[in-house]
Structures are given as structure tokens and as C-alpha cells.
């Protein structure tokens, strides 16, 4: 298993990845806030060798909120309710976006008894995914449905999880190697021999991820390309093609649903909005559904930039 010590800043490009005005207290274990330090700390977390790796439920911010988690019906208008952290009896997935929907009672807060129809309706109406995207992702046979959208993959791969009544629980999607994969942006890898992956957010790893923002203001596809490089370089077994596409697409999907479009056509999110979704599993402050339909072509622009940045690092002999 490789470690972060392979990193050689003299031969690799400089990414300026630290937030403006950041201090070492924001990134535990960092003595000097240089680009190399941020890369190395995130790489250490990727390899499971850094200190302070305690995990916590996504969304452990103190805030009042209520919700019924009532059964969803087709053709309803989805309104986000107040955020509330999951209880011990609630079911959560490895996907921050899906968990965010449950924490706001868009999906049932319990995360239980989910149906395909429920997911399709919410993806289409609340996240504004284009119908052709839904059709192509939700109607393919199971071996082919794990494409570049990890969150949509939850709906597809639930074919493995469906009970006799046609429902499944969000935690069912944590079965290792179906939708879930190692080298997650904010979760720990699945321990050897375990059937289910951790679904609790690794809070320190999540904050280190935010430290990869090039300007401290936005999380972009290029920043996620650096993250994917750091995450994947430690894997003893590389991701297979299907899970690699899922890994490359989960960040761009979140940016498409919860962020905005930049002048170059790629999606991005404000750092604090990214923190809300990926660390705390809550909607960005003032969130409004993206006004235009989100298409596969839109997301491919962002995915392409992410992959290009990762391949740039690999070309420098870093992976």
C-alpha cells in the first residue's frame, strides 16, 4: 500500500489549496499550512494513518427541527423541512446527498421503507434531474446501472435490496461493493471482512477535504480531482471501472444539484455549502432547486475537468 510520502512537490504543480486565512487549528495535525501539508494530511486520512479519525453522524450541528417522515405520494410538491440530525434508530446511506434529503424530511426522516417511485419523484422534482437522465439510470439492468452518479445508483442498486413489499432502507445501500466503494470523499473505507461500509461522516477527513479548495471560497471540479487522486493512490486494489465512474461523478452530481454553473460551464459549490452537504448532510443555506434541468451532458463537463486534473497528477508520477 502506497503512502503520502511519494508526493514530491518539486515535480508536481502547485495548486494553492488552502483556504484564505486558514489556521492550523482548522486542520488538526498540520503545523504549516502549505499546499504540500494539505495534500499530505488528506492523503494520510485516505490511508487511515492520520490521528483524530473519530467519525460522527453527518449533521451533528445543534439545531431544532421536527418532521413526520410521512409516506410520499406521486405528484406531491416537496418542501424541505427544518434540518434534524438522524437518531440512533434512523437509517442512513453512504451518500451525503441522500442523507441530506432525509435529514430535511424530503425523504422520510427515518430513512426506511424507501421505494423506487419515491426516489424518482424526488430526484425529478426536488433536484430537477432531467427525465432522460432518470430513464437511462433507473431503467437499465442492474449490472449496467452503476454509472457516474453514485446517488442515482442508490435507486438502481436497490434492486439488490428490495424486500417483498418493494421497499428498502437507506442503510441497505451501504453494502460494500454494490453502490458503496472505498476511497470515499468523507467516509472511512470498509474494514476487511465487513459486509457494510461506515456511513458516519469522518468529520476531520471532511474538513481536510475542504482544505483542498484552491482559493478557500469554492470547491471546484479541479479541487475534487486532487481529492480523488489523493484518495485513490493508497488503494491496494484500484476501483473497478463501474465504481470509478461512480466515484468520479458523485462530487459533480452534488455540485449540479446544490451548486451553480461557472463561466467555463463546470459546476462548483461555495466551500460552506459543500461543508453543509458533505460534512453535516444538510442543505446549503438559502437553497433553491436549480432552475434548469440537470442533464448528463451538463455533468459530463464537470466530470471531464475532474478527471483531467487527476490524470495530470498521475502523469507527474504521483500515483
Topology diagram in text:
Layout: H1 35-46, E1 55-56, H2 96-103, H3 116-125, H4 131-138, H5 142-145, H6 150-157, E2 201-202, H7 203-210, E3 218-220, H8 221-232, H9 241-258, E4 260-261, E5 267-270, H10 271-278, H11 296-315
Antiparallel strand pairs: 1-2, 3-5, 4-5
Helix pairs in contact: 1-8, 8-9, 8-11, 9-11
Question: Keywords, please?
Answer:
4% strand, mainly alpha, 5 strands, disordered N terminus, Chloroperoxidase, three-stranded antiparallel sheet, 319 residues, two-stranded antiparallel ribbon
Terminal CA distance reads: 11 Å
Shape type: globular
SS elements, strand count? 5
CATH class: Mainly Alpha
How many domains make up the 3D coordinates? 1
Major sheet: arrangement of strands? 3-5-4
- Rg over C-alpha atoms, rounded to the nearest angstrom: 19 Å
Reported CATH architecture: Orthogonal Bundle
Secondary-structure element order, as H and E?
HEHHHHHEHEHHEEHH
Largest sheet: 3 strands, antiparallel
Helix content: 25-40%
Topology-level CATH name: Chloroperoxidase
Question: How would you sum up this structure, described in words?
Answer:
By secondary structure, the chain is mostly helical. It has a single domain (57-67, 78-201, 217-315), classed as Chloroperoxidase (Orthogonal Bundle). The chain is 36% helix and 4% strand. The chain has helices at residues 35-46, 96-103, 116-125, 131-138, 142-145, 150-157, 203-210, 221-232, 241-258, 271-278, 296-315, and strands spanning 55-56, 201-202, 218-220, 260-261, 267-270. The protein has a 3-stranded antiparallel beta sheet. Strands 1-2 form a two-stranded antiparallel ribbon. A hairpin with a 5-residue loop joins strand 4 (260-261) and strand 5. Helix 1 packs across helix 8. The longest helix is centred in the last third of the chain and has 20 residues, at 296-315. The N and C termini lie close together (11 Å). Mean pLDDT is 75; it is low at 1-34, 49-73 and 136-158.
